[in-house]
Amino acid sequence: MSSYQHVVIGGGVHGCAAAYHLARSGRSVVLLEAATLASAASGGFGKRGVRGNKRDLRELPLLRRAYTLWPGLSDLLGADVGYERTGGVNLIERPATGLRGGLVAARAHAQVQSALGVPTEVIDRERVLDLLPEVTDAVVGGLHAPLDGMGDQTATTRAYAAAAQRFGAVVVEGARVTRLERDGAVVRAVICDDGERYEVGESVLVAANAGAAPLVERELGVALPLWTIYPQALRIRPPGTSPARLLVGHDSRTVSLKTVEDGVVMVSGGWQGRPGSDGSGEVLEDQVEGNLREAGAVFPALAAAELLEASAARPESCAQDQIPIIDVVPGTANVLVAAGWTGHGFAIAPAVAEELSGWMLSGRRPPALAPFAVDRFVERVGT
Ligand SMILES: Cc1cc2nc3c(=O)[nH]c(=O)nc-3n(C[C@H](O)[C@H](O)[C@H](O)COP(=O)(O)OP(=O)(O)OC[C@H]3O[C@@H](n4cnc5c(N)ncnc54)[C@H](O)[C@@H]3O)c2cc1C
After folding, report:
1. ipTM above 0.90?
2. What is the pLDDT of residues 332-344, one digit of tens each?
3. Domains of the chain
4. End-to-end CA distance of the chain, in Å?
């Protein structure tokens, strides 16, 4: 048996980053990871977009802070996190798309995003061609966010964990948490599947992403409105150099593209696999074909690209309103949960960790995390 002020459950980017800040503040911390660090959504090939363009407005205060943190993160953590500020473009092909998209809405998006800390300009086709000369003839303009970029999710996660360890945090891999032992509203101990028991001095952070809601429901009796998806990502090799010279998203097509290594392009953007037998996901042929088709529609040269790898192995938790839940678990006094990233939790991780660890240290919810309170899902009629 061992005792720590803070027990962090989950060794993805969020758990490792929170553990880093807690340890750096002089707290005793243990991080318990069921498998290995960065083995779920915070791992795998390629990079993750650090994108403000077209992000939910409620996340922009965190993203704005993350924008300032990312360029210095490698120095802070003492390891290369693979961050590049490439800039990003959301390509537009149509005058109007649904109720929110198209050229007609671009100016309003640029105006609001810029006001909230994500400098964004509407660019015409000429300017798109300056940035992306090989783009399809169908593109009529775009939303350009020059501060967008990308980072290496595995390197970032491991860098946070290593830095946390240098400040004294204990990281245990192969430690699946199966029980939370309660004394009224307070969780006093966390118990793993091998029977190992960790006494909780102050608080527990459930940063287990797809594993968070099942654990919280089973052990604390609280059903969080989250579900699991298996986002698909492809690695493709174009015939020539990569046409995706910056982070590319699309207003009306389900695709995002980034050049990740020596001319190899990572293609993703919302296509999904299905649950496999072992808790990870597996690819579906039609989803791979659909994603490749969209990539080829944006850059015709990619229609002839070689598919190197397709994966939908990594589970991600999704929230009903597409932004995370970051809160104290209702009915408990000392358990926080941070999950429901809905496919875009990496970019804001450095900022979330600052705020979340501050909350765990002070006991006070920081204003930047107020939009992610779980009571936003609770009926208020008549109150
Ligand atoms: C293919 C793909 C592309 C993406 N693209 C982007 C992008 O471009 N930009 C962006 O911002 N975000 C992106 N995301 C989302 C982003 O990667 C995730 O939101 C983020 O990595 C989540 O981090 P996490 O630490 O919460 O979860 P995870 O990395 O999933 O870590 C949770 C950890 O908890 C562990 N765990 C679970 N249950 C238990 C338990 N009971 N006991 C102990 N440990 C447990 C798991 O083993 C896992 O390691 C993408 C995700 C995927 C899968």
Report:
1. yes
2. 999 999 999 999 9
3. 2-44+153-225+320-377 (3.50.50.60), 88-146+231-313 (3.30.9.10)
4. 46
